[in-house]
Amino acid sequence: MNTNYNLPEQIKNMLQTTKRKNNHTLQNLIGEGGYVPPHIDLVIDAISALSLGKNILLKGPTGAGKTKFAETLSNMFYQPMYSINCSVDLDAESLMGFKTLAYENEKQVIEFVPGPVTSAMMHGTFLYIDEINMAKPETLPLLNGVLDYRRTVTNPFTNEIITAKEGFNVIAAINEGYVGTVPLNEALKNRFIVIDVPYLEGKQLKQLIQTNTRLANETTIDLFVKLSADLIQSVYQGKLSEDAASIRALLDACDLSTLIPAKRAIIRSIADKLEEERERKFVSNIADTLF
């Protein structure tokens, strides 16, 4: 458990109890942790929901730290986590697994290789579904029984009914309004507790830069915090796309600035990722005023 969080005693005791229960052999699938929340309520609410067996949906802009948040929850619960990265190509095999040829006592047999959904259910671990609204709408109904009180699914490849072991929980993440995404239907959304994950700003962002990058100069760190605030404000005003305010990209720029000038690091890590020349120049101008 990450002891840096000022958690209520009830939540700490809940995590300690869960950690004693989770004596998994899949320790290599436990997240590293390290998420710095904008406010502690995010962590408390997520822990509370998962402890009650609820699914949680992390909603927020790209680069806000949703995946890092999920990994931190895995770490805090000492709970391994299987992951799915959704795309338009996601199909039942990607979720459930597939059949393949194998040998048993020198005889060729058909063997089923479990996918992330079946593996997480059979082991009683977390399942992380990233960018869930990137999947085709016709693929996701397969998960309805997995996500509700039944915690069961019929494997379409083996006709086996799989019931999740105790400890199974689902964490999903969503970026709304992006090209290729589709709105989640109400039946699916109602199976989640929604937690809005905003951008990190101010002291929390400064702490993240100090602990997750090689940048040590406090003056430069403060300038990067100011840069992030300006980029976020520009996104809210509609002058930049959300990609410009990605915290992940900002951390890359901080790391790179230890070896090359900060302005160039910002261009390489943030500005050059943007599609429109207008936006690239806008970011460059902001960087000029600070660096």
From TrEMBL:
GO terms for molecular function: ATP binding; ATP hydrolysis activity. Residues 52-280 form the AAA+ ATPase domain. It comes from the Bacteria. Pfam families: AAA_5 (PF07728). SUPFAM superfamilies: P-loop containing nucleoside triphosphate hydrolases. Belongs to the CbbQ/NirQ/NorQ/GpvN family. This is AAA+ ATPase domain-containing protein. It comes from Lentibacillus populi. The lineage of its organism: Bacteria, Bacillati, Bacillota, Bacilli, Bacillales. The gene is yojN.
